[in-house]
């Protein structure tokens, strides 16, 4: 089975399990963590569960102390969502905020920390092995990263990531660059472009203008934004159509951001930090890191064509 076929099967299974629900509707979240150490800071699909009746996905946790859990697997069943730990083999990261599957490389993932260190991982069974790690290029003063997305077009690979921004005085900065890998596995970044982005919702002093990003098959950039008033909330979030990205046959990356981002769904009382568009579907899976209130997942029809 090819990776694309596996992902299509995963998408179909997940939609069957969770159902397709209106963005912003209440009651469809599934709880997958119960405290500040078990929230969902990023999410990536593995494929269908072993029994064929559910979906496996990797999630990262933004834990900082040695020995705390960094990576877990969620298995969505028909009546439950089980979380199992993934052992971390290698240099231990601090504050993982995003994870993304590498296109056409089964079992390979990139995970990003808040300060901009990218870890290349091989995940086999219940173990994630660090292949190599490297800092992002062009890190700006005060940058705090929560988002990461890979784009494969015309045989080339590109990466998007963003400083989350902070309120009215600091918009998010969306970065983009071509991506290749050294023979020993290290991520290598090409020329970097950057653009400022302000979320249409939520607004206020605590707004994180980009808390995660995903890219559809047609190149639409889907971005989540969030705000919180502390470890016990209240929280608020939205998912918006942020713009488009394309990669030329020569590997040049072009990003066009929307002057007025269209809000596709709002999610009061939740802090969305993970958004992943399902292949061949209008739906995404959203994950939350609700600090002391734990973490949740759900689907929402925010990706379109």
Descriptive tags:
1 helix, 5-stranded antiparallel sheet, 305 residues, disordered N terminus, 5% helix, 8-stranded mixed sheet, 51% strand, mainly beta, globular, 21 strands
**Succession of helices and strands:** HEEEEEEEEEEEEEEEEEEEEE
Outline the biggest β-sheet: 8 strands, mixed
Helix content: under 10%
Global mean pLDDT: 89
Proportion of beta-strand residues: over 45%
- Our count of helices gives 1
Characterize the quaternary organization of these chains.
Answer: single chain
Task: Give me the Rg, rounded.
Answer: 17 Å
Q: Tally of extended strands? A: 21
Structural class category:
mainly beta
Query: What topology, given as strand order, has the largest sheet?
Result: 2-3-4-5-9-8-7-6
Shape label: globular
Regions with little confidence, pLDDT below 50 for 5+ residues: 1-27
Distance between the termini: 24 Å
Describe the structure in your own words.
The protein is mainly beta. Helices cover 5% and strands 51% of the residues. It has an eight-stranded mixed sheet. Strand 15 and strand 16 form a beta hairpin. The longest helix has 16 residues, at 3-18. It is globular and about 40 Å long. The two termini are 24 Å apart. Residues 1-27 have low confidence and may be disordered.
In short:
The protein is mainly beta.
Topology:
Layout: H1 3-18, E1 30-33, E2 42-48, E3 55-60, E4 71-76, E5 81-89, E6 96-101, E7 108-113, E8 117-124, E9 127-135, E10 145-153, E11 156-163, E12 172-181, E13 187-189, E14 193-197, E15 208-215, E16 220-228, E17 235-247, E18 253-266, E19 272-277, E20 284-288, E21 295-300
Parallel strand pairs: 5-9
Antiparallel strand pairs: 1-21, 2-3, 3-4, 4-5, 6-7, 7-8, 8-9, 10-11, 11-12, 12-13, 12-14, 15-16, 16-17, 17-18, 19-20, 20-21
């Amino acid at each position: 089975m090819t990776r694309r076929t596996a992902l299509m099967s995963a998408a179909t299974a997940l939609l069957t399990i969770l159902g397709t629900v209106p963005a912003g509707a209440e009651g469809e979240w599934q709880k997958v963590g119960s405290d500040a150490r078990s929230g969902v800071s990023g999410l990536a699909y593995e494929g269908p569960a072993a029994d064929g009746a559910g979906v496996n996905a990797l999630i990262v946790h933004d834990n900082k102390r040695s020995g705390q859990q960094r990576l877990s697997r969620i298995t969505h069943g028909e009546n439950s969502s089980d979380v199992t730990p993934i052992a971390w083999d290698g240099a231990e990261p601090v504050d993982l905020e995003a994870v993304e599957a590498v296109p056409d490389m089964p079992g390979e993932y990139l995970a990003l920390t808040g300060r901009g260190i990218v870890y290349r991982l091989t995940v086999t069974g219940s173990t994630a092995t660090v292949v190599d790690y490297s800092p992002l290029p062009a890190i700006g003063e005060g940058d705090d990263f929560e988002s990461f997305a890979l784009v494969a077009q015309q045989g080339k690979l590109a990466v998007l990531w963003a400083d989350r921004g902070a309120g009215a005085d600091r918009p998010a900065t969306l970065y983009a660059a071509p991506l290749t890998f050294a023979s020993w596995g290290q991520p290598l970044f090409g020329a970097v472009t950057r653009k400022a982005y302000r979320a249409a919702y939520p607004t206020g002093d605590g707004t994180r203008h980009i808390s995660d990003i995903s890219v559809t098959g047609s190149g639409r950039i889907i971005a989540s934004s969030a705000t919180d008033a502390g470890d016990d909330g209240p929280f608020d979030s939205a998912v918006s159509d942020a713009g488009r990205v394309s990669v030329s046959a020569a590997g040049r990356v072009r990003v066009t951001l929307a002057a007025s981002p269209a809000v596709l769904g709002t999610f009061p009382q939740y802090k969305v930090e993970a958004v992943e568009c399902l292949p061949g579907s209008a739906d995404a899976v959203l994950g939350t890191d609700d600090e002391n209130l734990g973490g949740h997942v759900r689907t929402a029809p925010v990706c379109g064509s």
